[in-house]
Queue: 2 jobs
Job 1
Amino acid sequence: MDIDSNQDRMAAFLRDNQEKILARWGELALSSGGGRSSFSEIRSELSDLYPLIVRAMSGADESAAGELKAALAELSRSRARTGATPGETALSVFTLKDAVYELVADQADLTAEYLTFSRMIDDLGLHTFETYAAAREQIIADQAESMLELSTPVVRLWDGIIAVPLVGTLDSARTQLVMEKMLEALVANGADHAVIDITGVPTVDTEVAQHLLKTVMAARLLGAECTICGIRPQIAHTIVSLGIEFGDIATKATLADALAHALNRAGLRVGPA
Amino acid sequence: MERVPIMKIGQILFVSIQIDLQDDTVLQLQEDLAEKLAASKARGVIIDITAVEIVDSFIGRMLTMIGSISKLFDADTVLVGMRPAVAITLTELGLTLSGVRTALNTEKGLRLLGGSV
């Protein structure tokens, strides 16, 4: 008994009983779907899938398996948009097994064929699950990236003075991005002074300090000076307790102080008009 | 082997690196510069690296060394026009180029030397 003829016989069986199976599958899928989609919607989705399953089952058609996977991925995505859980989507695929089993149960000679079929449906169910997970992962990755972009603006304070307000925890990935953006802004604006405002950085530990120092060093290599400002009292305390040395890097309490310092370095003075 | 030309402008030696830096090119530049400094009584060296896209630790160290050599001839070295990517690489390599001054562009570099000489 070889697998191929098993598959062929099962495909023929599925083709012969298409109407019966589809109707029953629709009913079962509807009861497992949590009532999110209407019977006619489910029915049309499943009638699109069914011929593909039959083709993939017969194994004669090379492209059928790929098409079926693509159709399932699309089903999984459209279900996810309507708020269905991945479990519900997978379950609606699995109910095809029940629908077919009810017919096969009367015919003892189709047991081996049914097992092959069942294995295939399991794969398909898992595939919808994987698609769902992959789509989710993609959304999370996109969001993380846009958050990274959002959280690192570089603003021009004055001719030759730029500011980088940092909000959120500084890890190496963000430091890299901040560093790149700041250095590019320094070059683009011809600025030789940068103010790094860390008011929005919740904690400063040795690692964050290391990242800050690196950024300042890189700016110095370009020929620009950096001032760090926005150090809150608790953070000043932490920095001293950890024994972090900022060396000859100018640090100021507020952005205003840092701007005054930068203007002073540039030989400018702000006074009453 | 390609050679980097050294131009004398007033009291300043101007070096513009327009080629991909190889180890031997940098060594040659170091020698040429030392000779020029000894002969010309220049008081400042400007090295323009705007066109340099790739550096490694050896070249980073050589740049520091050029700074130290110039210092022996009582000349200040200013590195101008470093690209952000190059600055990041050097920082990641842990090279801070101590003894070499830096400026955003040649104009600012000249001003730096004019003010200090």
Note: The first helix of chain A runs from residue 3 to 16.
Job 2
Amino acid sequence: MKIRTLAILLLMVGTACLAAAFFLDGRVLPAFLSILFFFAWCYALLRHWRWANGLGLLVLWAIIGWGAWLQLSHSLLLAGLFALLAGWDLADFSTRLSQVEADAGHEELIRRHLFWLTATLAIALGCVLLALNLDLTIPLGWMVVIAILTALGLARVISHLMKII
Amino acid sequence: MTRSFLISLLTFATLLTGLALGEGVILMMAIPLVVFLLISYWRLPRNVKLSASRRLSAERIFSGEDVQVTLTVKNDGDDLEEILIEDMLPDRLEIVSGSNRFLTRLPAGQSVSWSYALRGKRGYFMLHEVRVKLSDVLGMVRMQTSLVTEGQLFIVPPVLRLRRVSIRPRRTRIYSGTVPARQGGPGVEFFDVREYQTGDSPRAINWHLTARHPQSLFSNQYEQERVVDVGIILDGRRRTTEFGAVSIFEHSVMATAALVDAFLSAGNRVGLLFYGKQIHWTLPGYGKLQGEKILHSLSCLEPGESQAFSGLFIPRHVFPAKSQLVLVSSLNTDDFAALADLRSKGYAVLVISPDPVSFEAANIPASGPADQAFRIIRMKQQLLFRRLLGIGIQVVNWDVSQPFEQVARRELERRQIIEKRGP
């Protein structure tokens, strides 16, 4: 299966979950908007507009956040989130692949990318499910310490990644 | 916006929004993003050590021919999950088959190699840079580096084969060749009759003359044929006509290559003077090696503008006295004085003039004023040619829409009457 087709399929699943979550709550407009964005994203993907991938993710991510704030179905929102994240990654990957001619080396490249993407999403899903089911009571002081350490650690990782570019 | 920046932005925005709204589910949305960042950080190649080498099927090709480029990149560092290799090519080279970009995975200690074919216009090209873009497994971080390789490509002008170019300078060299030397001796063409001398071949005895003078024997003398010095001057002043990618200068270069080949094939000593933005001089020499030197020089030449060389000023000291000069130039009326000066110093001058008038006329839409202008320019051109003919300079006005071999066969292969009028 071509990577672009797989990306579109995942985006479709993600959008469908998102739209369903809104629709079940009786909110038609956000559901309709999500579907509209999905089609726009697909069009951009077919035209190889790389910038559209980032924009698509930002917009749909915001819609998921809105859904979470409105207390919509968690399972649908999480399914949508993971599918969209995978779709975004593969859409970007297919754009990178399209910049060069198809070659025998691509098979190995695609296989490795899919492996690592699946592994990443599986780990993330595990963490999310753990967070959903784990009920820890942490004192406020420790909470603040953990939050600060998380922010500092994240900032360090990000700054390292940005410095390399 | 890079992927890592986008994910970082989303992570912080999601965390801040979750904290601000006190929504655990929104905070949880940040988890996949954080995992993405951490896995990218973990699998980042720390030790990048790449080397590249390039192999060309030929370093010197004729314009219109293909060259096969094989590029090999070796990884002596960490595993590289995604590497985009791009061979940086000059603008004037085009890819005929394959691609100069290659995306692959390159594990540590392994190398990757691929080929593609190039074609281009006349020129000298340095192929030194290979650009490499590296990514981690998820493509979050993109690093870019350049690798240096060795490689050069000469695309020389096509060499048309001319059978013979008839020239007759006043001074020849001592080696035997194909140019009549105005001296009696062994040869083919009848030159003179003299009294028989010991050593003359009995076949050379002129029996008709001997019959009229019974007391003496007379023998025929033939004209010696020797090699000569030929200086080819290529005019590269910018005023030469250009229409987009089509330039009359390219025709001049092609004619020069054909003449160089014809003169060298006849055993002559040939040098090339390029007269454009600066003067470029290829020292005279004989044989195939000299032909290669001149072709390499021709591949690098570009027309240009210079105030110092805007008029035609030919440095005479580089050409042996009374040798043959061939000027390849779309002549200008101002050039007469320089050519007359050369002629007055005893040089035999031949001018090959790629016709700028017919070239422009073919590239400009026909209109009344344009036709009128062309007629006026044509008359001025004819007048200049007549004046040059008057001082013993042969001019070949070449309409570049016709093949040069055809024009050369018609105009250059036989001896011109003009030779008899020379000084």
Note: Chain B has a mean pLDDT of 87.
